[in-house]
Every structure is written in C-alpha cells, then in structure tokens.
Amino acid sequence: MLQETEQRAPAPRAETDRLALIQEVIEEIRPNLKRDGGDCVLVNVEGAKVFVKLTGACVFCKLASATMEGIQAKLIERLGEFVRLVPVAGPTAPIKVAQ
C-alpha cells in the first residue's frame, strides 16, 4: 500500500499508442517534404531510437540534417520523452502501424 507521501509513477504509454503517435507526427510532416520532391517514412522503432528513411529530393538535400532535427524536435514535443531520430540508408520496408 502506498503511503501518502509516495506518488505513483505515470503508467507507461502502451507501445502501440506510442508507435501510432510517432507515425502521426511523420505523416504530418510528409506533405511538406513531398511538395519539394522528397519524403520520409518510418522504418522501425527500438526504444528511444526512431529509424526513418529520407527519399527522393531529401536524400541529397543540404537541409536534410535540419529536416531530421525538426522531425526529432516534434517527436520529443509530442511524446514528452527524448527520442533520437536515426536515418537509414539502403532498401528498407516501412513499418506497419495498426490503426
């Protein structure tokens, strides 16, 4: 039994909810990237690491690192926890998020 001075830690967010929120953030950003001929897809999530693949014009864009920093900042803001956005190169399959 908890004493009055103890507080319960917040319940951890269900992994599926967390994954859906990460996908939602990326989906919000994709139209802007597509407008410039690029794209970003979620590849995998492993703990605090979020793996994404930039495609199209984003691959060789000088602002790709700024784009990645912006996506990471938005993820941190929405999740309320630190995550590291990791770019992935080569052929990959996007992650499937159940909705």
TrEMBL record:
Signal peptide boundaries: none
A biological process from GO: iron-sulfur cluster assembly
A GO molecular-function annotation: iron ion binding
Gene3D superfamilies (UniProt xref): Fe-S cluster assembly (FSCA)
Cited SUPFAM superfamilies: Fe-S cluster assembly (FSCA) domain-like (SSF117916)
Domain (NIF system FeS cluster assembly NifU C-terminal) ranges: 22-84
Name under which the protein is recorded: NIF system FeS cluster assembly NifU C-terminal domain-containing protein
Organism: Xanthobacter tagetidis
